[in-house]
Amino acid sequence: MDIASESRIIIPRIRPSCIQCQRSKKRCDRGKPHCSACIRYGRECVYVLRDDSASMSSVENASLSPVKAAQESEESSHAVFFLDSVLFRRSMNRLPELELSFTDPLLSFIGDFTSDRDFVHLYFSTIHPSMPFLSKKKFTERILNPLSPPRPASILLIATMKLLADQRPEQGPRCRAYYSIKSSLLEAESSCSLELRVLQAIILMAVFEVGHAIYPAAYLTVGYCVRYGNALGLHKAVEHYSEEGFSVTESEERRRSWWAILVLDRYMNLGCVDRAFLTADPSKKSILPIDDAIWEENREINAPVRRLFEPPTTAMGRFSLTAQSAILLGNVFRSIHEPPFSEAFWQNDVKVLDSTLVALTSVSLEEGRHRGIGVCSPSTICYSARLLLHDKERYAVDEFPFAATEDFIPQDFKRDIADGMLQLAEAIHSGSCSPDEITPLCLESIYRSAVFFGREYSRTGTLSEAASCAAIKGALDVIGKRWKAASVYAQMIDARMVTGIL
Fold first, then answer.
1. Which InterPro entries does UniProt cross-reference here (predicted)?
2. Cβ(425)–Cβ(472) under 8 Å?
3. Residue range 236-255: average pLDDT?
4. Which of 345, 353, 437, 463 is the residue whose CA sits 20 to 30 A from 176?
């Protein structure tokens, strides 16, 4: 062997290389301050000395690590989802799944839900009947299945269900678990994920905050539901019986979730009509939730399709009637917000709206008697809507100078509603009606009925009116052990009586 060959030392060629595009400066610079690839993508060239005979430098490895690349890919997919939906649908068509790490307080609060399912029974027996947007069958088969590893979105949903089903929270509504779940929901928002189960957890959190009068969080959470639901396209689920890419059951669950958001959005504004609701009214051809009994039996395919323009019947089910009552409540808001062309036009509009509310109330009461439901939330929402429609103090005086007239609509309906709520209060005191049957959607009409009796006592001095007001207030105190919002309403009754603001 040639000695010169043995002593030859191969010196690797060292030349500057751009770490953004992995091209040598000689290949990509060509006399320009930046390489063409970096100019195309708006990047700054960063040159390091590169050994052609060696692998990528540690700096390059760090900049192109798999974790960082995957993160950037997920962020890009979400950007495309919002910036160009057509491109997203035709190229990616799927957002990344949620990835979260939960804190110890949240995990200890949930516990072993595969074996301890008392809260599941409580949820489906107390909360679910008035707001049935979860498929009980799918929840049991897919989320509670011990053979299926729990996904982060499912854990969030389970946590909010348990929080809502906890009837006697020891630390009050603003407990440690509440803040842990809120923190996890905020983390889910920042994790580049949009999932139906996360939205359903947010809806349950909104119900919890409304029921326990956690403001302004409740108002903001409902608004968050609207935005999240719109991002998922749930507002379109009420227009189509079966959506592309979803089964009939999945479409029904998405549709019910959107109706739940719409109901909360309308109900949230009852105390302050100056606030505008965030969800637009569905079209008259919009699809209502199917009958609740069919939903529970998982027979969606055989269910008749009911649309919003159809007259209400008991065959529609409780949640369908709740959705229709929320639409009518929205019409009442519009009647109050939009100045009419003339007094005659406004009076006719009020009469028609009032008659429609009366008809829906009758159907709701009949449906409750038929199915053994003591307190039907569609009825109480209709009561609140009628009382609002005829409450002259909540009209703008400058725009509705004729709203003070009371001769075109009989006012004795207010006493009828108040008497009905008084009977409910007496049933609560006697124990024949459990506070668990009262949903947060019932509380406003109960409160307004107490205000009616208080006003009548102030006007006439009749002791029976004062006793009726006190009885309803006492019932609210009892309900307050389950829903703190009821206790707040009871305090407001005291404030009205003391100040004379009736």
1. TF_fung (IPR050815), XnlR_reg_dom (IPR007219), Zn2-C6_fun-type_DNA-bd_sf (IPR036864), Zn2Cys6_DnaBD (IPR001138)
2. yes
3. 88
4. 437
Strand order across the 14-18 sheet: 23-24, 14-18, 47-51
| Domain-embedded: residue 332 | no
Burial label for 189, CB within 10 Å (0-12, 13-18, 19+), is middle
Query: Considering the entire predicted model, what is its pTM?
Result: 0.81
So what's the pLDDT on residue 447? Answer: 97
Are 308 and 281 in contact by the 8 Å Cβ rule? The answer is no
The verdict on residue 144 lying in a domain is: yes
119, 196, 230 from 102: Cα distances, Å: 20, 19, 27
Sign of CA dihedral 46, 50, 52, 55: negative
Single-letter amino acid code for the residue at 286: S
* Residue 117: other Cβ atoms inside 10 A: 13
Q: Which of 25, 51, 48, 47 is nearest to 36 (CA)?
A: 25
Q: Tell me the pLDDT band of 190, cut-offs 50, 70 and 90.
A: confident
What's the whole-number mean pLDDT along residues 215-242? Answer: 93
pLDDT higher than 60, residue 481: yes
Tokens of 194: 């949009």
Lookup: tokens for 307: 């649309």
How far is Cα 300 from Cα 284, in angstroms, rounded to an integer? Answer: 21
290 part of a folded domain: no
109 and 209 together in one domain? yes
DSSP three-state, residue 14: strand
For residue 314, what pLDDT is reported? 87
Residue type, 61: N
Helical segments of 166-284, H only: 176-189, 196-211, 217-232, 248-267
The three-point CA angle 177-179-184 to 5° equals 95
Is 51 in the same domain as 80? Answer: no
Closest CA to 20 of 64, 52, 57: 64
- Of 291 and 25, the structure prediction assigns the larger pLDDT to 291
Mean pLDDT for the stretch of residues 64-93: 62
31 to 34, 36, 44, 83, 105: CA distances (angstroms): 9, 11, 16, 36, 60
